[in-house]
Amino acid sequence: MAKDHFPQTLKTWIHQKLEEGHRGREELNRYVMGIYSGPLQVYCRGTGSFHLGEPDDIVSGFFADRLSRNDYFEGWKESGLRLRRWLMNGLGFYLKEQAREQRHAGASSRNETEMEASTPDNTAEVEADMDRAFAVSVVRLALAETQKTCDTKGLREHWRIFHKHYYDGLPYAEFTQEFGVGAARAAEMARTVAGKFRSALRGILASDGARESEIDTEIETLLELSA
Amino acid sequence: MTAEPNDPQRRFTEALQSGAPSELDRGRLSRLLGLGMARAGEPADRLARRLSRPDGAAWLERQLASGALSQSSAVLARLASGGASLDELRELKAWANQQLEEGSDTAWSDARLGSLAAYFLAVASALAHHGANITRQPSEKLAPLLERLAGAAPTAWRTLLEAAVVRLRQL
Where are the domains of chain B? Predict the structure, then answer.
């Protein structure tokens, strides 16, 4: 659950994890890879860098290179950027580095031309695509964290009702019989879980660097992109 | 028809495929993202909390039948059955909105919450019975609000609100 693991913002949490040494660093890296791998692969596709390898391999290489640097997150904190933008910019540089290395390794002239195309000429579109994938990652993680919280707190029936109504989109009247509760009680149970989901989702966006006062606007932007 | 490489639909599908299980489609994504909103939900949450109280059903009937709302009793009586025309619903919604804007209290009095209820019920009736979204709010923002109210509303209104959400998702 985001509230347990990520107090207020990831910046605070990052400090904590970095201070915990190797184990904390591993935990931090796992979180970053889990939520940003998909969006960064989308960015990778948008740059047309297929000559450098498969997007998942490229992103794995990028994480291995950048996340091992001790000052990587310090740099992000000083940048004031959303973490996804910081990682996206970092991946852009990484792609250019990889392209240079391939050139120096004696790649063919045909590939050199392809390498020059690594910087996207449709940056806004690529960023929007990446943000859509980010929205998906955020919702996935929030769902996973909420389910875990419900399991821990003995709210599995609550979770199943929430899932039927909010995920599957079914009206309460269509499924409450199987749970042996009335529609009003089912709605109350789903609302309990919806509150936990909301906290998880907002916690993840705070982790990306959004202040509490900015989170609704952030969600609106992601909604517009996903519409 | 083959999608072009830059086709937004194709790019979105690719984004979904790489970032999530395929079952997290566009509708679900919007619905769940919208659930994360705090600011937009506040007045609706207040109304939902009031409706959830033991006397919620009686309170709502009282609000709809008294004070300024009593002027619209003829339309209000036909909301659930679908007997109100789209023009009547637009008029009721605009009128309720006006009451809300004119209210100077910040404590959300019963009368103000009653106007809010009339607003949402007019919107729900327009959706459920006419398939029209008469607000400027996009469906992904409106649906979570109607869902929250449906979860708290008395049976007759809940049916209307839930039908509105179902219809909203089809628009």
Answer: 26-170
Q: How far is CA A56 from CA A34, B8, B32, in A?
A: 12, 22, 27
The pLDDT score that the predictor gives to residue B19 is 45
Digit-coded pLDDT (tens) for A6-65: 334 555 666 677 778 888 888 888 889 989 999 999 999 988 887 888 999 999 999 999
Stretch B118-133: mean pLDDT: 94
Query: What CA–CA distance (Å, rounded) separates A41 from A88?
Result: 10
CA distances from A122 to A16, A48, A78, A119, B109 (A): 38, 11, 27, 9, 52
Please answer yes or no on whether B35 and A201 come within 8 Å at the CB atom: yes
Residue B158 has pLDDT above 50, yes or no: yes
**Res. A107: pLDDT tops 60:** no
Instruction: Give the gap in angstroms from C-alpha A189 to the nearest C-alpha of chain B.
Output: 10
Is B72's pLDDT higher than 50?
yes
Distances, alpha carbon B169 to alpha carbons A76, B57, B72, B79, B165, in Å: 39, 27, 29, 20, 6
Cβ proximity of A76 and A83 under 8 Å: yes
In chain A the first and final C-alpha atoms are separated, in Å, by 27
Which has the higher per-residue pLDDT, B155 or A66? A66
A105 to chain B, minimum CA–CA distance in Å?
A: 31
Give residue for tokens 């639909």.
B9
Q: What does the radius of gyration of chain B's CA atoms come to, in whole angstroms?
A: 18
- pLDDT above 70: percentage of residues in chain A: 86
Under DSSP, the state recorded for A174 is G
Q: Crossing angle, helix B139-152 and helix B110-130, to 10 degrees? A: 120
User: What ipTM describes this predicted complex?
Assistant: 0.83
Q: What's B3's DSSP letter?
A: P
Say what the pLDDT of residue A206 is: 85
Residue A62 to residue A82: CA distance in whole angstroms: 18
Q: Are residues B16 and A136 in contact, defined by beta-carbon separation less than 8 angstroms?
A: yes
- Residue entry with tokens 């309170």: B59
Residues 6+ away with beta carbon under 8 Å from A154? none
Cβ A136–B141 below 8 Å, yes or no?
A: no
| Average pLDDT over all residues of chain A | 83
Which one of B33, B46, B51, B127 makes the best mutation probe of the A interface by having the most chain A beta carbons within 10 Å? B33
| pLDDT of B161 | 92
